[in-house]
Write a structure and sequence with these properties.
The chain has 2 domains: 6-122 and 283-297, Aldehyde Oxidoreductase, domain 3, CATH 3.90.1170; 128-280, TIM Barrel (Alpha-Beta Barrel). It contains 12 helices and 13 strands. It has helices at residues 6-21, 29-34, 59-70, 100-131, 149-158, 176-182, 185-195, 208-216, 229-241, 243-246, 262-266, 277-280, and strands at 39-47, 51-52, 76-79, 86-87, 92-99, 137-139, 171-174, 200-205, 221-225, 250-254, 272-274, 287-291, 296-297. The protein has a 6-stranded parallel β-sheet. It catalyses: nicotinate beta-D-ribonucleotide + CO2 + diphosphate = quinolinate + 5-phospho-alpha-D-ribose 1-diphosphate + 2 H(+).
Length: 300
């Protein structure tokens, strides 16, 4: 499972802290007024719901940046579970120990990021479980929260899903508007191949004729959009029937997919089901940071 890029994580956490604390170094007027900087303690990161966790890897970065802003020691983070783990309500996910000012200033930022990622991972795991044994995989889309795409796609991986393209730069996806602008599927595919010969080309189709036209144009990855199950099965059969001459064509079902249809759609023989809702409609997984009793001050 590809890790988060450290440079991206550092930038994202810095932006999140600026949003919460004001420009660096920022301030938390409540915590800094009520808790001496010498006060040390421990806090448990706890799951308040059953689910799959993701984003726990952000915690050390958050507490490290907060400690640097406050000029205090960096708390230790003892992870009790790893990203991708199934957890139950009440499970302790990590124990953070250090200056209480740092713990409380960091609390909301680390919860926002980890709860969001864990919600995506939990939702994705439901799809991955529904498709288990079918041979099909669940894919994400670019329907992500601006600025959090790397985290949300990481969370999809934690939940057992697969990332599609990361952006507009790494895969060409010829959709209906591109076909209209270029004049035809063939013209669009040829234009991409001429300008960007190094990229994979994917073509959207919503009819059997469009799918076969795309394959004839050289596309080896088709997005079968908003097709009823029967039509989807017909398209899969037609495309698979020509693979002795065309070579393997990857097929993705997309549009209006629901969990209760997942296995039915997978049974048509598609390779993938892409689900925008993994990232645009997943509720958070409720997590909490609870300060343990016995917090002490080192002030003399």
């Amino acid at each position: 499972m590809t890790a988060l890029d450290p440079a991206w994580l550092a930038r994202t956490v810095a932006i999140a802290l600026d949003e919460d604390l004001g420009p660096e170094p920022g301030r938390d007027v409540t915590t800094q007024a009520t808790i001496p900087p010498e006060t040390v303690g421990a806090a448990d990161l706890v799951a308040r719901q059953d689910g799959v966790v993701a984003g726990l890897v952000v915690i050390p970065e958050v507490v490290g940046q907060v400690a640097a802003r406050l000029g205090l020691p960096v708390p230790t983070v003892d992870h009790r579970v790893a990203d991708g783990a199934r957890v139950a309500r009440g499970d302790v996910l990590a124990v953070l120990t250090g200056p209480v000012q740092v713990l409380l200033v960091a609390e909301r930022t680390l919860l926002n990021l980890a709860s969001r990622a864990s919600g995506v991972a939990t939702h994705t795991r439901r799809w991955a479980d529904a498709l288990d044994g079918t041979g099909a995989q669940v894919l994400d889309t670019r329907k992500t929260t601006p600025g959090l795409r790397a985290l949300e796609k990481y969370a999809v991986r934690c939940g057992g899903g697969t990332n599609k393209r990361m952006g507009l730069y790494d895969v060409a996806m010829v959709k209906d508007n591109h076909v209209v602008a270029a004049g035809s599927v063939v013209a669009a595919v040829e234009a991409v191949r001429a300008r960007f010969p190094d990229v994979t080309i994917q073509v959207e189709a919503d009819t059997l004729a469009q799918a076969l036209e795309a394959v004839a144009a050289g596309a080896r990855f088709l997005l079968l959009d908003n097709m009823p199950t029967q039509l989807l099965a017909e398209v899969v059969a037609a495309v698979r029937g020509g693979e002795l001459s065309t070579g393997r064509v990857e097929l993705e079902a997309t549009g209006n997919l629901t969990l209760d249809r997942a296995r039915e759609v997978a049974s048509t023989g598609v390779d993938y089901l892409s689900v925008g809702g993994l990232t645009h409609s997943s509720p958070i997984l409720d997590l909490a940071l609870d300060l343990e009793p016995g917090t002490t001050s080192t002030r003399r």
